[in-house]
Amino acid sequence: MPNPMYRQIAEDLRAQIESGALTPGQQLYTEIELRERYGASRNTVRDAIKLLIALGLVESKPGQGTFVVQKIDPFITTLTGDPSGPGGGDQIFYRSEVANRNRKPDVSPVQVEIQEASDDMAAALRIPTDAEVISRHERRFIDRTPWSMQTSYYPVEFADRGAERLRSAGNIKEGTVQYLADTLHIRQVGYRDRITVRAPKPTETDFFKLPPDGRVPIYEIIRTAYDGNGQPMRMTVTVYPADRNEFLLDVGNVPPLQEIETSQ
Question: Looking at per-residue confidence, does 260 or 41 come out higher?
Fold first, then answer.
């Protein structure tokens, strides 16, 4: 039994995409051009485009048209590390890890807000629900592609006690983990990550330029860091789109990731 016409059109367009005749980011032919090109009806052309969208080969942008999906080379983030260090939640660690893979990291200016703790924040930081927290938000890029969004929350009393730079929008070059150790003698000894998967929020869809149908989920990692007395000292929420991120957990004596990548 021959393929339906819409499948024949989709397969031909798929071949053009895979061969490079239609390049990533390029706009697909208009509906009228496709109808004339294949001698097909409007519904047949629309069914072909729907199939290509379902295959993740093209995406529809309202008011703009249909475009070939731009494939992104995933980045592997190491979640394990020195328990007294920041791990992947710190800007210094992030820049170093990305640069060591011969890729270009970039970070937006830090946005700082004073806000009332939500129930989840209060529970994680063990503070009253009406207490204030300092939030420090930044957006991260790899090779100019939006890669992750991160917000760290600190009890406002840390700034009241002397860690005043937490309130500043400027970057803390030595990292907040080291800054808190130097100013308040609060030393991180470990952290716990909770990982969930969910649909993207509208702001995330917009920033990461995700398909509007929600087919690309979001990884959300909530990291709670603890000091030597077992007291939580920060809560960091980082969101990563699933189409460009992978995660690595090392346990025991294993070779560095660079050695694994080189041998493959």
Answer: 41
- Residue 263: the pLDDT is 47
Spatial CA neighbour of 194 closest among 133, 144, 120: 120
DSSP 109: P
Distance CA 256, CA 161 (A): 40
Q: 10-16: long-range contacts at Cβ-Cβ below 8 A with a sequence spacing of 24 or more?
A: 10/48, 10/49, 10/51, 10/52, 10/55, 12/38, 13/48, 13/52, 13/57, 13/58, 14/52, 14/55, 14/57
Q: Rounded CA gap, 140 and 244, in Å? A: 13
Domains of the chain: 5-68 (1.10.10.10), 75-263 (3.40.1410.10)
| Amino acid at residue number 83 | P
Helix (H/G/I), strand (E/B), else coil: 115: strand
For 28-36, the CB contacts below 8 A with 24+ separation are: 28/58, 28/65, 28/66, 28/67, 28/68, 30/65, 34/9
| Predicted structure pTM score | 0.76
